[in-house]
Write a structure and sequence with these properties.
It is globular, with a radius of gyration of 23 Å. The protein is an alpha/beta fold. It is 40% helix and 15% strand.
């Protein structure tokens, strides 16, 4: 397939810079195919080795990917700053946006009263010497983790879960190392792995989380880190049951050289008990973001783990960002201490549960197989992903294509239920039934 954007350059550095420029301006959008190595080399008058080197650099940076017979193309969300319009597929005017993966903003607790209270008691400005994790917040994190069965010898805070994951991976791995990742899995994390030059090894996910045989195969393939979502898995809604956690602990036993990262991003919104893997390996970390329950502006995630792992993250932060703002830390403490906010978060979780169950029931009545045991997303296997997304768009619904989240998993689409009203459920289910048709089975529990 020809590429309209004209890649230029006489060296590998110039060629890779030209591709990045095309991505930045939007002339090489997500999924755009690139010429074959020899064809581009002939067009530029350089050796195939020069083009191959440029592609290698771009691949290691997560800008491009090689898709077998489909050739080389721009990744769905390459780590290159682009115009805002190029960052996300457009939602047609008048369509109901079910693609965002965001919580319902009407259910987020208002921050204004807590910001006002914080302003009244914040005290004099602090200096660099006093900055860092507030001892009161660290104690609260330990207590909240312990209440869920996570006994963390050390804790810190990062600027969100993805920031914490990046710091964990860069502290323990080097470009080229393999990471066991859920398939399908969180698209942001897949993009991060690619941007760090790491190699993603897919681990199949069913309704109970990563499968033991899939994790065992990934570790046998040399994975030096493994990432597990405990609840409200994005995009499938899977959650780690007690039985599955026991099976995964057995797989991880003796894998002391493997970094285990657990992501409990739903936190207080989850309607199922936590069954953590914390401590299953010698090197481990447990992350819980504040964004889903309290809003995206609260850029804070609690991170617990073994002392060496947490110390590496905290030490690296001191050399860069330094610390998460103590103002944000105090705001988080105020929210956690407020019984009214706790009640609001519980009510939000129940609202999401009602919407999710209503959609799943409506789809089941129409013979559509769908998954979503927890969280704010529903995963629907489809026979033809492009057809399903297009058909739903033409029916007035913007959904997320499964290609953003999957590696070896069959096609599917993700629907975020947080924008749905009760009156939306039935017509949406009708539209999905018309769009999904027959699909490859997904979600069968595999021991």
């Amino acid at each position: 397939m020809p590429v309209h954007y004209q890649i230029s350059g006489a060296t590998s550095a110039e060629i890779s810079a030209s591709v990045e420029s095309g991505v930045r301006t939007g002339e090489l959008p997500s999924g755009a195919p690139l010429p074959a190595v020899r064809a581009l080399a002939d067009g530029l008058g350089v050796s195939p080795g020069t083009v191959a080197k440029a592609y290698q650099v771009l691949r290691q940076r997560g800008v491009i990917e090689t898709a077998g017979r489909n050739g080389t193309r721009i990744r769905p969300r390459p780590p290159v700053t682009a115009t805002r319009a190029a960052l996300r597929p457009p939602v047609p005017p008048g369509a109901l946006d079910l693609s965002s993966g965001e919580p319902d903003r009407d259910l987020l607790p208002p921050l204004g009263p807590h910001l006002a209270a914080l302003a009244a008691r914040v005290g004099p400005p602090i200096g660099y010497a006093e900055a860092g994790v507030l001892p009161e917040l660290a104690d609260m994190i330990r207590d909240r983790f312990a209440a869920d069965g996570v006994e963390a010898p050390a804790v810190t805070v990062t600027s969100g879960a993805l920031d914490g994951a990046e710091r964990l991976l860069t502290a323990h791995l080097r470009p080229g190392d393999a990471v066991a990742v859920e398939d399908p899995g969180w698209s942001n994390f897949l993009d991060l792995v690619a941007a760090l030059g790491l190699r993603a090894v897919p681990v199949p996910v069913d309704g109970e989380g990563p499968t033991p045989h899939g994790l065992r195969a990934a570790l046998a393939a040399g994975a030096r880190a493994a990432v597990v979502t405990t609840r409200a898995h994005n995009p499938t809604g899977a959650y780690l049951t007690a039985a599955r956690a026991a099976d995964l602990r057995e797989v991880l036993a003796g894998q002391d050289g493997v970094l285990l990262i657990e992501d409990d991003h739903a936190g207080e919104l989850a309607d199922v008990p936590l069954h953590p893997l914390a401590g299953a390996t010698r090197t481990w970390a447990f992350l819980r973001s504040a964004a889903k329950p309290y809003g995206a502006d609260l850029r804070l995630a609690a991170l617990g783990g073994d002392e060496a792992t947490v110390a590496r993250v905290a030490g690296r932060m001191r050399l860069g960002a330094g610390w998460v703002s103590t103002l944000l830390q105090r705001l988080a403490m105020g929210l956690w201490r407020d019984p009214a906010v706790t009640a609001e978060v519980v009510a939000a979780g129940r609202s999401y549960d009602r919407r999710r169950h209503a959609l799943l029931d409506a789809l089941g009545e129409r013979g559509v197989t769908a998954y979503g045991r927890t969280g704010i997303n529903v995963w629907i296997p489809v026979a033809d992903e492009t057809r399903a997304v297009t058909t739903l768009r033409d029916s007035g619904y913007a959904v997320a294509p499964g290609a953003l989240y999957r590696q070896a998993t069959p096609p599917g689409v993700r629907i975020t239920i947080s924008p749905l009203k009760e009156s939306d459920i039935s017509p949406l289910a009708d539209a999905v039934a018309a769009a999904a048709s027959s699909a490859t089975e997904w979600g069968r529990t595999v021991r």
